[in-house]
Structures are given as C-alpha cells and as structure tokens.
UniProtKB/TrEMBL annotation:
Keyword NAD appears in the UniProt entry: no
Coiled coil location: none
Keywords carried by this UniProt record: Hydrolase
Domain PPM-type phosphatase: 172-387
The protein, known as: PP2C family protein-serine/threonine phosphatase
Length: 394
C-alpha cells in the first residue's frame, strides 16, 4: 500500500487501543509504515501559549512555544511543516493535530533524510487526523490527555468551565470559527457554545455575574438551560425566555447571566439574534469594521418571565464576526484607562490576516498588553467567525 492511500488498519488499531496506549500505538504505526525513528505528541495547553511533549502520560516533557519555531508554525498555520535539521541524515515533520477545526496540538515525526516527499507527508497527516479523533473519544474514559494540557493546576471554577465548552474551534465549508478564554487557569463565568445541523449554526456567548465558583455555577445553569431549550427545537427568543426562567427560579433576580444568541441560516447568511446583556458583536469586511447594533435586552434571570425579541441581520461571504465579553470591551488598565472600542478595533485590524483561532487569541493578547498584566481582573472571552457561505449565497 502506498503512503498516500487510506489505511483502514491504522484507524482500526488506533480505535481499539486502550486510551493510555494511544501514543505508543501511533509511534509503532508510523515507524512501521513510514520508517520514522521518533514520534512525539505535543498537546496545546489551556492558554494556547505552549505545546507540551507527552512522554509517559500524564507526564509531559519540557514545553515548546506554541507561536514560534517549526512546531509552533505547524500549530498556528494548521499546515504540515518540514524542518531541515542540523543533521543531514534527519528531517522532522510537524503535523497539526486537529478535529473538525478544534486544534489539539502537533504530531512531530523524525524521518530519515529523503523520506519526506509530498506523498509521505500526506500519509502522516492522515495518521495525525486519526490520532486526534481518537484522543477526543478517549476523553470520555480517561483524564490523561486533559492532564497533559495543563502547565499548572486549574481552579475549580475553571475546571467546571472547561468541561462546559464544546471545544475551541469548529470548521465547515460554510464557516470557520475559533474562540479563546482568559485567564485560562482561573476563569469563572465566561462561556461560549455552538451547535450546527444541516442548515443552521447556533452560537452563544454567556457571562455569569460574579467571580469564581459562584459565577461558574450560575453560568453552568444558564448554558445548560439554553442547551435544553435549543434541543427542544424552539425559537431563539423562546430559548432565551426559558433560560431566563430557569435562572430566575434559582436566584430570584439576585444573580443573572448576560448572553448573546445568534442563529445563522447556512443557505442565505440570514442571522437571528437576541442580545440579552453585555457581550458585543463586531463585523469586519475588508478594511471596514463596524459594531453590529442590537437592541440591548435584559440579562437572563434579572426579572421573572422576561419576554425576548429577535432581531435580524445578514452576513456576506468574506465577513468576519467578532464577539467579545464584558471582560474584553469593559476592561480597564492599572491607570484606569478603558480598553474600549478604539483599541479593540485596532486589535481586530491587526489580526485581519490571521485565521479565526489565532485572531481570537490575538484580541485577548491585545487586551493583556493594554491591561499590563497577564492576570486579568475579569474573564475575557472572544469568538471569531469567518463566514464563507454556500455556493449561490448572495
């Protein structure tokens, strides 16, 4: 069998391997099929700042930068990178480990010189993709790969929030999105969520009032209620109303959650929206950046039986939407200066050439620079969506 041909045996062996044996199984497969003499799995940490080489799970080797060097380039560009080493007899291939647009890390393979022709690189990329899917599946049965992503211990609030997230990215022919959260190891109340079917994408950003475990519990209730309502197949406004009732029933108006709900028609680009609180939405098309003006309605749970009204707008192929939580647009530096719309627009402009996942991270990096410290005073969440549309969308 040629390296470029699908190998059902590879997928079967990975699928049947015990979770703790996945990395070792991938190493044996790549060595046998491609002649590699070293295979390393590197997992991205929660802050997307480093990639940690997984040795004997759950232990990791010394981390490497996620934004620098050949390994970081494979991660940020999401393309295979062939590294020419100082040893003329050795070449390294770094392959992004990604599942449906959600970046997990990089598979790094050391090959003999001359063994990195395009056909071989494509074959290695297929193995990396299969391994990524199995790592996601293994997460149902083991904590090993979650532990491998950590540079330090998470707070309990952050643990709850990460378990609530769908991932940090998603891609389909009609769109690509990436999202980022900070402070990664101590988030309390910020959340993003999405779900797609054949013809629609639903996207939400939620910010639970308060900090720490109280905010995390509130957000967990709000997101769970929104998901329950969404899965009942009801309208966006009714989803907000049912979640509002659930939060009010628990907290009696003493605590509430701000939420932005968006539902995209994949055929037409028509968007239904409910702005229930403080997240802000910006649209970028070319050099033009504008805030999408939505009617500010009451946060979830502030008052009993609040009624919500949907608004609509339209996205065109080539549009980029950026949603930011209060911790971004309302953040203040040590001198009291507000991050504000001007700085946010400048950061969005600077991130224009970047893919959505890097653009979302860059917005938070701009906030950190403005704030003057990586220890932000409040959670910061960013979602970046690049809209491609379907053929025939106008």
């Amino acid at each position: 069998m040629k390296a470029s041909e699908p190998d059902p045996g590879t997928e079967k062996l990975l699928r049947t391997a015990p979770p703790h044996e996945l990395v070792a199984t991938a190493q044996r497969l790549v060595a046998a099929r491609f002649g590699a003499d070293e295979v390393t799995l590197l997992m991205a940490d929660y802050g997307l700042s480093v990639l940690q080489p997984v040795t004997h799970l759950p232990h990791t080797g010394p981390p490497v930068p996620a934004l620098e060097g050949p390994v970081g380039r494979a991660f940020t560009t999401q393309t295979p990178v062939v590294e020419i080493t100082d040893d003329p007899s050795v070449t390294r291939v770094h392959l992004p480990l990604t599942v449906r647009g959600d970046r997990l890390g990089v598979l790094s393979v050391r090959m003999p010189a001359g063994g990195t022709d395009p056909v071989t690189v494509l074959g290695l990329a297929d193995v990396a993709t299969a391994l990524g899917h199995e790592i996601v599946t293994a997460g149902r049965d083991t904590d090993l790969f979650l532990l491998a992503r950590r540079t330090r211990r998470l707070t309990l609030a952050a643990e709850m929030q990460w378990q609530l997230l769908p991932g940090r990215g998603c891609a389909r022919p009609e769109y690509a999105l990436g999202a980022h959260l900070e402070p990664a190891y101590a988030i309390g109340g910020d959340n993003f969520d999405w779900s797609s079917d054949a013809d629609h994408l639903t996207l939400t950003m939620t910010d639970g009032m308060g900090q720490g475990i109280d905010a995390s519990l509130l957000t967990s209730l709000a997101v769970g209620a929104l998901r329950n309502a969404r899965r009942a197949g009801i309208s966006l406004a009714d989803q907000a109303a049912l979640a509002d009732q659930a939060v009010y029933a628990q907290y009696g108006g003493k605590s509430y959650a701000s939420t932005l709900l968006l539902r995209f028609d994949l055929d037409t680009g028509a968007v239904q929206a409910v702005d229930a609180g403080s997240p802000q939405l910006y649209r970028q098309h070319g050099a033009t950046i504008e805030q999408v003006e939505l009617e500010a309605q009451l946060p979830l749970g502030m008052f009993e039986e609040t009624q919500y009204v949907e608004q609509s707008f339209r996205v065109e192929p080539g549009d980029r939407l950026i949603a930011v939580s209060t911790g971004v647009h309302g953040a203040r530096a040590a001198d009291g200066g507000l991050f504000g719309e001007r700085a946010l627009r400048q950061t969005i402009t600077a991130a224009t050439p970047m893919p959505p996942h890097e653009a979302a991270r860059a917005v938070v990096a701009g906030l950190v620079e403005h704030f003057g410290s990586a220890e932000l005073g409040a959670d910061a969440a960013v979602i970046c969506l690049d809209w491609r549309g379907r053929d025939g969308t106008s």
